[in-house]
Amino acid sequence: MAEKQTVTFIITRQDSPESAPYEETFHVPYRKNMNVISGLMEIRKNPVNANGEKTTPVQWDMNCLEEVCGACSMVINGTARQSCAALVDELEQPIRLEPMSTFPVVRDLIIDRERMFDALKQVKAWIPIDGTHDLGPGPRMPEKKRQWAYELSKCMTCGVCLEACPNVNDKSDFIGPAAISQARLFNSHPTGEMNKSERLEGLMEDGGIEGCGNAQNCVQVCPKGIPLTTSIAAMNRATSIQSFKNFFGSDNAH
Questions:
Q1: Band of the pLDDT at 2, cuts 50, 70, 90?
Q2: Which of 66, 49, 58, 159 has its CA nearest to residue 115?
């Protein structure tokens, strides 16, 4: 197509965490079915901007290239999403690329997602199995429960839900919807349920579930369609019950 001989990218760049952001425009050769990462790879091969000036290659993060790892999240034409799944043919030009604003910028489009991983630590989003290798198979999960638990397990800590959430910002320590949903996932597991109260305590700490303002942006933007608001509602109920147990001194009651 003659009108698509080149693709124009306007990229928000930042040389270091402390330096000021600036925009740089690039023209890259058009290819059918190319995604945003294909365009970034072209720029890396030939880092010359639209003014014909040699510049530094644009830095971005990626890993799986099939919308599983969550590493390549960025803001594309104003919407946070995965750049591996963003097809150029479906995007309005010029294509604007920016780093997600909820997280600290490392360089260019690379952001530091440590906030998300700290949130997972807060809610103990894992199942302790040390020392259990010789106990034989664990309990089976009923099929109906397994089906909705599998939907929660699709979370790839991409950070898009945190970017969309108005309650997650540099003035708030709210852990965000992803960690809340993961607490629900691990509490639903027959073995993980043994540490259920610890995860609920994590959700009841500062920055926990009370930070949710019920904006419901998260469930609209999640690339995996995870029922985040359903998880938040379920964990709201669970933490309320846990607080009653704590109040009446029956932490181990079931």
A1: very low
A2: 159
